[in-house]
Protein backbone atom coordinates (compact mmCIF):
# COMPACT_ATOMS: atom_id res chain seq x y z
CA UNK A 1 0.00 0.00 0.00
CA UNK A 2 1.57 3.27 -1.17
CA UNK A 3 -1.14 5.92 -1.31
CA UNK A 4 -0.23 9.57 -0.93
CA UNK A 5 0.38 10.52 2.68
CA UNK A 6 -2.41 13.08 2.72
CA UNK A 7 -4.94 10.33 1.88
CA UNK A 8 -3.80 7.87 4.51
CA UNK A 9 -6.40 7.00 7.14
CA UNK A 10 -6.45 5.02 10.35
CA UNK A 11 -8.19 2.21 8.48
CA UNK A 12 -5.49 2.22 5.77
CA UNK A 13 -2.76 1.79 8.37
CA UNK A 14 -4.66 -0.95 10.19
CA UNK A 15 -5.04 -2.92 6.95
CA UNK A 16 -1.38 -2.40 6.06
CA UNK A 17 -0.24 -3.61 9.51
CA UNK A 18 -2.86 -6.39 9.74
CA UNK A 19 -4.15 -5.10 13.07
CA UNK A 20 -7.36 -3.41 14.24
CA UNK A 21 -7.95 0.31 13.95
CA UNK A 22 -8.12 0.42 17.77
CA UNK A 23 -4.59 -0.98 17.97
CA UNK A 24 -3.22 1.73 15.69
CA UNK A 25 -5.12 4.39 17.64
CA UNK A 26 -3.74 3.05 20.92
CA UNK A 27 -0.19 3.32 19.58
CA UNK A 28 -0.72 7.10 19.36
CA UNK A 29 -3.15 7.80 22.18
CA UNK A 30 -2.97 4.98 24.77
CA UNK A 31 0.57 3.52 24.66
CA UNK A 32 0.04 1.64 27.92
CA UNK A 33 -2.42 -0.63 26.11
CA UNK A 34 0.27 -2.11 23.86
CA UNK A 35 3.60 -3.82 24.34
CA UNK A 36 6.62 -1.62 23.75
CA UNK A 37 7.70 -3.70 20.72
CA UNK A 38 4.28 -3.56 19.02
CA UNK A 39 3.89 0.16 19.58
CA UNK A 40 7.36 0.94 18.22
CA UNK A 41 6.69 -1.23 15.17
CA UNK A 42 3.40 0.54 14.44
CA UNK A 43 4.88 4.03 14.88
CA UNK A 44 7.88 3.16 12.70
CA UNK A 45 5.61 1.97 9.88
CA UNK A 46 3.44 5.07 10.20
CA UNK A 47 6.49 7.34 10.00
CA UNK A 48 7.78 5.47 6.96
CA UNK A 49 4.48 5.95 5.14
CA UNK A 50 3.91 9.50 6.32
CA UNK A 51 0.86 8.82 8.50
CA UNK A 52 0.83 11.34 11.37
CA UNK A 53 -1.83 9.75 13.55
CA UNK A 54 -5.57 9.95 14.21
CA UNK A 55 -7.07 13.40 13.77
CA UNK A 56 -7.95 14.81 17.19
CA UNK A 57 -10.76 17.03 15.88
CA UNK A 58 -12.39 14.15 14.03
CA UNK A 59 -12.06 11.89 17.04
CA UNK A 60 -13.73 14.48 19.29
CA UNK A 61 -16.64 14.72 16.84
CA UNK A 62 -17.10 10.95 16.93
CA UNK A 63 -16.83 10.48 20.67
CA UNK A 64 -17.91 13.85 22.01
CA UNK A 65 -14.72 13.95 24.12
CA UNK A 66 -11.30 15.44 23.54
CA UNK A 67 -9.32 14.13 26.52
CA UNK A 68 -8.61 17.74 27.52
CA UNK A 69 -9.62 19.22 30.88
CA UNK A 70 -9.98 22.98 31.27
CA UNK A 71 -8.40 24.45 34.39
CA UNK A 72 -9.72 27.95 35.05
CA UNK A 73 -7.61 30.10 37.33
CA UNK A 74 -8.79 33.19 39.19
CA UNK A 75 -5.66 35.15 38.38
CA UNK A 76 -3.12 35.92 35.67
CA UNK A 77 -1.01 33.08 34.31
CA UNK A 78 2.22 34.92 35.13
CA UNK A 79 1.07 35.31 38.74
CA UNK A 80 -0.05 31.68 39.03
CA UNK A 81 3.28 30.31 37.82
CA UNK A 82 5.10 32.16 40.63
CA UNK A 83 2.61 31.31 43.39
CA UNK A 84 3.78 28.22 45.33
CA UNK A 85 0.28 27.25 46.49
CA UNK A 86 -1.14 27.35 42.97
CA UNK A 87 1.87 25.39 41.70
CA UNK A 88 1.28 22.64 44.25
CA UNK A 89 -2.41 22.48 43.34
CA UNK A 90 -1.60 22.16 39.63
CA UNK A 91 0.93 19.45 40.46
CA UNK A 92 -1.79 17.41 42.17
CA UNK A 93 -4.09 17.80 39.17
CA UNK A 94 -1.41 16.93 36.63
CA UNK A 95 -0.27 13.78 38.43
CA UNK A 96 -3.75 12.27 38.32
CA UNK A 97 -4.78 13.40 34.84
CA UNK A 98 -1.45 12.43 33.26
CA UNK A 99 -1.76 8.92 34.68
CA UNK A 100 -5.06 8.63 32.80
CA UNK A 101 -3.60 10.23 29.66
CA UNK A 102 -5.61 13.44 29.85
CA UNK A 103 -4.21 16.85 28.97
CA UNK A 104 -4.78 20.14 30.80
CA UNK A 105 -5.71 23.46 29.20
CA UNK A 106 -4.99 26.30 31.64
CA UNK A 107 -7.36 29.24 31.23
CA UNK A 108 -6.84 32.32 33.42
CA UNK A 109 -9.91 34.48 34.06
CA UNK A 110 -8.04 37.76 34.59
CA UNK A 111 -6.18 37.82 31.26
CA UNK A 112 -7.29 39.35 27.95
CA UNK A 113 -7.49 35.81 26.51
CA UNK A 114 -10.49 35.19 28.76
CA UNK A 115 -12.76 36.78 26.16
CA UNK A 116 -14.07 33.41 24.94
CA UNK A 117 -11.98 32.27 22.01
CA UNK A 118 -13.77 28.95 21.89
CA UNK A 119 -11.55 27.17 24.39
CA UNK A 120 -14.47 26.36 26.68
CA UNK A 121 -16.32 24.43 23.97
CA UNK A 122 -13.33 22.19 23.22
CA UNK A 123 -12.66 20.71 26.65
CA UNK A 124 -14.46 17.83 28.37
CA UNK A 125 -15.10 19.75 31.59
CA UNK A 126 -13.64 22.24 34.04
CA UNK A 127 -11.67 22.42 37.26
CA UNK A 128 -12.26 25.99 38.51
CA UNK A 129 -9.55 27.09 40.97
CA UNK A 130 -10.67 30.14 42.91
CA UNK A 131 -13.69 32.29 42.02
CA UNK A 132 -13.38 33.55 38.43
CA UNK A 133 -14.86 36.73 37.09
CA UNK A 134 -18.64 36.58 36.86
CA UNK A 135 -18.82 36.54 33.06
CA UNK A 136 -16.25 33.75 32.92
CA UNK A 137 -18.25 31.62 35.33
CA UNK A 138 -21.43 32.22 33.35
CA UNK A 139 -19.72 31.04 30.16
CA UNK A 140 -18.50 27.86 31.84
CA UNK A 141 -21.92 27.02 33.28
CA UNK A 142 -23.49 27.67 29.88
CA UNK A 143 -21.38 24.84 28.42
CA UNK A 144 -23.37 22.28 30.47
CA UNK A 145 -20.24 20.26 31.24
CA UNK A 146 -18.77 18.81 34.42
CA UNK A 147 -17.46 21.48 36.81
CA UNK A 148 -15.47 20.93 40.01
CA UNK A 149 -14.83 24.09 42.05
CA UNK A 150 -11.85 24.54 44.37
CA UNK A 151 -11.61 27.15 47.15
CA UNK A 152 -15.15 28.41 46.54
CA UNK A 153 -18.68 27.06 46.07
CA UNK A 154 -21.34 27.21 43.37
CA UNK A 155 -24.80 25.90 44.20
CA UNK A 156 -25.39 22.57 42.50
CA UNK A 157 -21.72 21.75 41.85
CA UNK A 158 -19.17 19.64 43.72
CA UNK A 159 -16.43 21.60 45.52
CA UNK A 160 -13.08 20.92 47.19
CA UNK A 161 -12.30 23.30 50.07
CA UNK A 162 -10.64 23.66 53.42
CA UNK A 163 -12.24 25.18 56.51
CA UNK A 164 -10.58 28.58 56.25
CA UNK A 165 -12.53 30.13 59.13
CA UNK A 166 -11.70 27.52 61.77
CA UNK A 167 -8.13 27.04 60.52
CA UNK A 168 -7.40 30.76 60.84
CA UNK A 169 -9.17 30.94 64.19
CA UNK A 170 -7.13 28.05 65.61
CA UNK A 171 -3.90 29.71 64.47
CA UNK A 172 -4.88 33.06 66.02
CA UNK A 173 -5.98 31.45 69.30
CA UNK A 174 -2.53 29.85 69.60
CA UNK A 175 -0.71 33.10 68.72
CA UNK A 176 -2.72 35.18 71.18
CA UNK A 177 -1.98 32.97 74.20
CA UNK A 178 1.41 34.54 74.84
CA UNK A 179 0.90 37.89 73.15
CA UNK A 180 0.92 41.07 75.20
CA UNK A 181 0.31 44.23 73.24
CA UNK A 182 -1.17 45.23 69.93
CA UNK A 183 -2.08 42.93 67.06
CA UNK A 184 -2.12 43.69 63.34
CA UNK A 185 -3.60 41.62 60.51
CA UNK A 186 -2.01 41.49 57.08
CA UNK A 187 -4.94 40.47 54.91
CA UNK A 188 -5.09 39.31 51.32
CA UNK A 189 -7.67 40.58 48.81
CA UNK A 190 -10.15 41.62 51.47
CA UNK A 191 -11.34 44.86 49.84
CA UNK A 192 -11.77 45.95 46.25
CA UNK A 193 -8.48 47.82 45.78
CA UNK A 194 -5.32 47.29 43.75
CA UNK A 195 -3.15 49.00 46.38
CA UNK A 196 -1.80 48.14 49.81
CA UNK A 197 -3.99 49.99 52.29
CA UNK A 198 -5.70 49.82 55.66
CA UNK A 199 -9.31 48.81 55.39
CA UNK A 200 -10.62 51.74 57.50
CA UNK A 201 -14.37 51.80 56.84
CA UNK A 202 -14.22 50.14 53.44
CA UNK A 203 -16.76 47.46 52.67
CA UNK A 204 -15.26 43.98 52.92
CA UNK A 205 -15.79 41.55 50.10
CA UNK A 206 -18.63 39.06 50.59
CA UNK A 207 -17.77 36.09 52.79
CA UNK A 208 -18.81 33.57 50.16
CA UNK A 209 -16.71 35.21 47.44
CA UNK A 210 -13.23 34.81 48.93
CA UNK A 211 -11.46 32.42 51.26
CA UNK A 212 -9.49 35.28 52.81
CA UNK A 213 -12.63 36.93 54.20
CA UNK A 214 -13.33 33.66 55.98
CA UNK A 215 -9.76 33.74 57.37
CA UNK A 216 -10.23 37.34 58.48
CA UNK A 217 -13.37 36.44 60.39
CA UNK A 218 -11.53 33.57 62.03
CA UNK A 219 -8.80 35.97 63.16
CA UNK A 220 -11.30 38.56 64.43
CA UNK A 221 -13.37 36.04 66.36
CA UNK A 222 -10.23 34.70 68.06
CA UNK A 223 -9.22 38.26 69.01
CA UNK A 224 -12.68 38.97 70.40
CA UNK A 225 -12.61 35.66 72.26
CA UNK A 226 -9.35 36.72 73.91
CA UNK A 227 -11.09 39.82 75.28
CA UNK A 228 -9.28 42.17 72.88
CA UNK A 229 -10.60 44.75 70.43
CA UNK A 230 -9.42 45.18 66.85
CA UNK A 231 -9.59 48.59 65.20
CA UNK A 232 -10.17 48.55 61.43
CA UNK A 233 -7.04 50.62 60.83
CA UNK A 234 -4.93 47.76 62.27
CA UNK A 235 -5.97 45.55 59.32
CA UNK A 236 -4.00 45.86 56.10
CA UNK A 237 -5.23 44.85 52.65
CA UNK A 238 -2.62 43.24 50.37
CA UNK A 239 -4.00 43.07 46.80
CA UNK A 240 -1.86 40.15 45.57
CA UNK A 241 0.10 37.40 47.25
CA UNK A 242 3.57 38.70 46.40
CA UNK A 243 6.68 39.31 48.50
CA UNK A 244 6.94 42.98 47.54
CA UNK A 245 3.36 43.86 48.50
CA UNK A 246 3.56 41.81 51.70
CA UNK A 247 6.80 43.58 52.63
CA UNK A 248 5.20 46.99 52.05
CA UNK A 249 2.22 46.18 54.26
CA UNK A 250 4.38 44.66 57.01
CA UNK A 251 6.76 47.61 57.09
CA UNK A 252 3.85 50.02 57.39
CA UNK A 253 2.37 47.97 60.21
CA UNK A 254 5.64 47.61 62.12
CA UNK A 255 6.31 51.35 61.94
CA UNK A 256 2.98 52.21 63.57
CA UNK A 257 2.74 53.47 67.12
CA UNK A 258 2.09 51.50 69.17
CA UNK A 259 4.00 48.85 67.29
CA UNK A 260 2.14 45.51 67.02
CA UNK A 261 3.56 42.60 68.99
CA UNK A 262 1.84 40.07 66.71
CA UNK A 263 1.27 39.95 62.95
CA UNK A 264 -1.42 37.53 61.78
CA UNK A 265 -0.74 37.01 58.06
CA UNK A 266 -3.12 35.40 55.59
CA UNK A 267 -0.39 33.67 53.61
CA UNK A 268 3.11 32.35 54.13
CA UNK A 269 4.43 34.65 51.42
CA UNK A 270 3.18 37.68 53.30
CA UNK A 271 4.51 36.28 56.59
CA UNK A 272 7.98 35.63 55.16
CA UNK A 273 8.02 39.15 53.73
CA UNK A 274 7.01 40.43 57.18
CA UNK A 275 9.98 38.65 58.75
CA UNK A 276 12.29 40.39 56.31
CA UNK A 277 10.66 43.76 57.08
CA UNK A 278 11.14 43.12 60.82
CA UNK A 279 14.80 42.27 60.30
CA UNK A 280 15.35 45.47 58.30
CA UNK A 281 13.82 47.42 61.20
CA UNK A 282 16.17 45.70 63.68
CA UNK A 283 13.34 43.74 65.24
CA UNK A 284 13.80 40.15 66.36
CA UNK A 285 11.30 37.38 65.64
CA UNK A 286 9.73 36.19 67.91
CA UNK A 287 11.25 38.28 70.74
CA UNK A 288 10.04 41.66 69.45
CA UNK A 289 7.25 40.58 67.12
CA UNK A 290 5.53 37.23 66.66
CA UNK A 291 4.43 36.27 63.14
CA UNK A 292 2.11 33.58 61.76
CA UNK A 293 1.34 32.55 58.20
CA UNK A 294 -1.10 30.35 56.31
CA UNK A 295 -0.43 27.59 53.67
CA UNK A 296 2.81 25.90 54.84
CA UNK A 297 4.74 26.34 51.60
CA UNK A 298 8.16 24.60 51.51
CA UNK A 299 10.08 27.77 52.43
CA UNK A 300 8.17 28.04 55.71
CA UNK A 301 10.14 25.25 57.37
CA UNK A 302 13.52 26.04 55.80
CA UNK A 303 13.50 29.76 56.61
CA UNK A 304 15.11 30.93 59.86
CA UNK A 305 13.27 31.53 62.05
CA UNK A 306 10.90 28.86 60.77
CA UNK A 307 7.30 29.95 60.33
CA UNK A 308 4.30 29.02 62.47
CA UNK A 309 1.54 28.45 59.97
CA UNK A 310 -1.53 26.48 58.89
CA UNK A 311 -0.68 23.49 56.74
CA UNK A 312 -3.13 22.95 53.92
CA UNK A 313 -2.81 20.04 51.50
CA UNK A 314 -2.44 22.03 48.28
CA UNK A 315 -1.23 19.06 46.23
CA UNK A 316 -3.95 16.95 47.83
CA UNK A 317 -6.67 19.39 46.80
CA UNK A 318 -5.59 19.00 43.19
CA UNK A 319 -5.48 15.22 43.52
CA UNK A 320 -8.96 15.05 45.07
CA UNK A 321 -10.50 17.39 42.46
CA UNK A 322 -9.05 15.32 39.61
CA UNK A 323 -10.17 12.02 41.13
CA UNK A 324 -13.73 13.28 41.61
CA UNK A 325 -13.78 14.52 38.01
CA UNK A 326 -12.64 11.10 36.72
CA UNK A 327 -15.09 9.17 38.87
CA UNK A 328 -12.38 7.69 41.08
CA UNK A 329 -14.04 9.26 44.15
CA UNK A 330 -17.62 9.77 45.24
CA UNK A 331 -19.15 12.77 43.50
CA UNK A 332 -19.63 14.88 46.60
CA UNK A 333 -18.07 18.01 48.05
CA UNK A 334 -14.96 17.54 50.20
CA UNK A 335 -13.52 19.63 53.03
CA UNK A 336 -9.82 18.77 53.23
CA UNK A 337 -8.42 18.85 56.80
CA UNK A 338 -5.71 21.33 57.82
CA UNK A 339 -3.16 21.31 60.63
CA UNK A 340 -1.63 24.04 62.78
CA UNK A 341 2.17 23.79 62.57
CA UNK A 342 3.90 25.56 65.46
CA UNK A 343 7.47 26.69 64.71
CA UNK A 344 9.96 29.35 65.81
CA UNK A 345 8.22 32.53 64.61
CA UNK A 346 5.37 32.11 67.11
CA UNK A 347 6.06 29.31 69.61
From TrEMBL:
<keyword id="KW-0804">Transcription</keyword>
<dbReference type="InterPro" id="IPR046335">
    <property type="entry name" value="LacI/GalR-like_sensor"/>
</dbReference>
<feature type="domain" description="HTH lacI-type">
    <location>
        <begin position="8"/>
        <end position="63"/>
    </location>
</feature>
<dbReference type="GO" id="GO:0000976">
    <property type="term" value="F:transcription cis-regulatory region binding"/>
</dbReference>
<dbReference type="GO" id="GO:0003700">
    <property type="term" value="F:DNA-binding transcription factor activity"/>
</dbReference>
<keyword id="KW-0805">Transcription regulation</keyword>
<dbReference type="InterPro" id="IPR000843">
    <property type="entry name" value="HTH_LacI"/>
</dbReference>
<dbReference type="InterPro" id="IPR010982">
    <property type="entry name" value="Lambda_DNA-bd_dom_sf"/>
</dbReference>
<protein>
    <submittedName>
        <fullName>LacI family DNA-binding transcriptional regulator</fullName>
    </submittedName>
</protein>
<dbReference type="Pfam" id="PF13377">
    <property type="entry name" value="Peripla_BP_3"/>
</dbReference>
<keyword id="KW-0238">DNA-binding</keyword>
<dbReference type="InterPro" id="IPR028082">
    <property type="entry name" value="Peripla_BP_I"/>
</dbReference>
Amino acid sequence: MRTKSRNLTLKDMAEHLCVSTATVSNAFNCPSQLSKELREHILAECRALGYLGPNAAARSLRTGRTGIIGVTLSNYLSYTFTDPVANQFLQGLAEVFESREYSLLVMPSRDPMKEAKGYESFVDGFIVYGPPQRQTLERLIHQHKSIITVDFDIDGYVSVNIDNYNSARECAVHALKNTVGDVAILGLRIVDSNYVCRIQQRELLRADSTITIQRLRGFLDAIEGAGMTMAAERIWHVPDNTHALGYQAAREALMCSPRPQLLLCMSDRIALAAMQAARHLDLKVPEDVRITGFDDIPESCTHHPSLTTVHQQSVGKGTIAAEIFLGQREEESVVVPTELVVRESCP
